[in-house]
TrEMBL record:
The keyword Hydrolase does not apply. It holds the Pfam family PhoLip_ATPase_N. This is P-type ATPase N-terminal domain-containing protein. It comes from the Eukaryota. The keyword Membrane applies. One of its GO terms (cellular component) is endomembrane system. Residues 43-93 form the P-type ATPase N-terminal domain. Its main location: membrane. InterPro entries: ATPase_P-typ_TM_dom_sf (IPR023298), ATPase_P-typ_transduc_dom_A_sf (IPR008250), P-type_ATPase_N (IPR032631). It comes from Phytophthora fragariae.
Length: 271
């Protein structure tokens, strides 16, 4: 997959040049022995998605970092540190403040770990779902997991959630569908993308016109027998992941924001 710009001979300024994307159809027949899928440059982006915040090896560091973003926790940590210093300690060097702080942190860690575990399970369930990809060597469609999809794969869908951004190639309408027997029309449900429940009409484009205007991920095919499509974007390059913003956004409640400001104001009043 690559991007091409207009040539200088056209006299178009660099900032105004049109961009094009080239997607090569993958050929499973070129795969090395023992490998079902070919590894071409278009296969660099994995279709695995991650909505979890932590991994088993980063949990402690990331969790503690996020925990002490709350100024109240940071304040009590500093109080505990000062309690260790004999010259300024009102507790004879015993960090009594660490006990309640540790209890709060451990409870928060248990809840955070459990919630993130559920996100890991949901991610694994999503990328383990099955779809059908055309194998050019066997000249037939075969089932693969969503995580195995690569840019340039040809897929067939039938009343199912689309596993990546798909460019419609051909549509076989269902009997009695609203497309009226047109071989290039289908309806797509995009509520997972934009929240709209109305079915959107999509048409297979001409080979040299608007080739990438009909890309959908997290859409569901409706009123169609089946549709052939070309995978245009996968994983972090897909629309649903690009629109989701940060890889793992940290949500801060309005109460936490207010508490942080109050602690800072209260603390600064002592200096």
């Amino acid at each position: 997959m690559s991007s091409l710009l207009s040539t200088d001979s056209q006299g178009v300024p660099l900032g105004q040049r049109k961009q094009y994307k080239i997607v090569e159809i993958n050929d499973a027949g070129n795969a090395p022995s023992g490998s079902r899928r070919a590894q071409s440059p278009t296969r660099r982006i994995s279709n695995e998605v991650k909505t979890s915040q932590y991994t088993w090896w980063s949990f402690v560091v990331v969790f503690l970092y996020l925990t002490f973003q709350k100024t109240a926790n940071l304040y009590f940590l500093l109080v505990g540190i000062f309690q260790i210093i004999p010259s300024v300690s009102p507790t004879d060097g015993v960090p009594l403040q660490f006990t309640p702080l540790a209890i709060i942190i451990v409870i928060d860690a248990i809840f955070a770990g459990y919630e993130d575990y559920k996100r890991h399970m949901a991610d694994d369930l999503t990328i383990s779902a099955k779809t059908r990809v055309f194998n050019r060597q066997l000249r037939e469609f075969e089932e693969v997991e969503w995580r195995e999809l690569k840019v340039g794969d040809i897929v067939v869908a039938n009343h199912e959630i689309l596993a990546a951004d798909i460019m419609i190639l051909a549509v076989i309408p269902a009997e009695g569908s609203r497309s009226g027997g047109n071989m290039g029309l289908c309806y797509v449900e995009t509520k997972n993308l934009d929240g709209e429940t109305n079915h959107k009409l999509r048409e297979a484009p001409q080979p040299t016109r608007n080739m990438f205007t009909n890309e959908h991920e997290a859409g569901k095919l409706r009123n169609t027998s089946y549709m052939y499509g070309l995978v245009a974007n996968t994983g972090t390059d897909s629309k649903i992941m690009m629109s989701s913003g940060d890889e793992f956004p940290v949500k801060v409640s309005s109460i936490d924001e207010m508490t942080n400001k109050q602690v800072i104001v209260w603390w600064s009043s002592f200096w």
